[in-house]
Amino acid sequence: MKQKRLVTIQDLSCFGKCSITAALPVISALGTEAVVLPTAVLSTHTGEFLNYTFHPLENEFDRISAHWASLKIEFDAIYVGYIGSVTLINAVSRFIDRFKKENTVVFIDPAMADNGKFYSGLGKDYANALSSLCTKADIISPNITEAMILSGLNPEDYKNVTDIKEICKKLSSLCDNVIITGVHKKDTISTIAYQKSTSSFTQAEKPIYDGVFYGAGDLFASAFIGMYVNGASLSDAVTNASAFVNDCIIKTLDEREKYWYGLKFEQSLHLLCDYYQKLRCDK
Ligand code: PXL
Fold this sequence. Notes:
By secondary structure, the chain is α/β, with parallel strands linked by helices. The chain is 39% helix and 23% strand. It has helices at 19-29, 58-70, 86-99, 124-134, 144-150, 164-171, 216-228, 234-253, 269-282; strands spanning 5-15, 33-44, 54-56, 77-80, 105-108, 113-114, 117-118, 139-140, 177-184, 188-195, 200-207. It has a nine-stranded mixed beta sheet, with helices on both faces. A two-stranded antiparallel sheet has the order 6-7. β1, α1 and β2 form a beta-alpha-beta unit. α1 (19-29) packs parallel to α7, α3 (86-99) runs parallel beside α4 and α7 (216-228) packs antiparallel against α8 (234-253). The model has no long low-confidence stretch (mean pLDDT 96). The structure holds 3-hydroxy-5-(hydroxymethyl)-2-methylisonicotinaldehyde. 3-hydroxy-5-(hydroxymethyl)-2-methylisonicotinaldehyde is lined by residues 11, 13, 18-19, 42, 45-47, 82, 111, 119, 214-215, 217-218.
């Protein structure tokens, strides 16, 4: 099977098990070359850590992409995660214009908020810029808080959504394929995907565990795009990426106090290798 090449554009939180440090191993386990374009370097992620450092790579971003353009590097997928500033969102938009070819999948995880609140340092202006960036994507994967912000709803109501299908349809005016993660029901949490071309929905429902699991959205997004770029259908990739994240959470629960800041995903990577083998055999 031909090896795919994907570029992931998001921050490098050096300690914290999210963004690039989660994406790289997941994408590699799915048999795919992962190229990285970091938007910023942070000492840790911004959730619950105090005094984290943040160094935006605004000057480097266009220089790196100009060098890649001169080398004529091409990508099967462009996967965008946490960006960190409006200036950088504009740089990512230019990158997509430059590198998106006919068969390049553009996947944007509009990471900016969770559990009803914006991440530290981000707000409405950032959301507006990210919303315009989403119009350049083939697939977006907001969590429920981000989906509400992008739909103009109050994110603090994220646990009481009754019309999730309406939110999916509303967001499909930004992008044809919408995957919403972290949708709460009484005892379960679901990922819901909507494909405008077929008006079809996919739901992956899992038990709900108490507490906040930093990086779960990044692991889902990385597994999803790694599967999808290798030929899984959108619906299969949603189902299997969701099963992978559920396994990461279960494995983390036995060392919850030590790993309060991220998931023990390393012990679940074998599931992705198995899934990649299955995709290879199906080809
Ligand atoms: O996991 C999402 C994420 C990514 N990057 C940074 C973050 C967060 C969530 O808190 O702070 C820097």
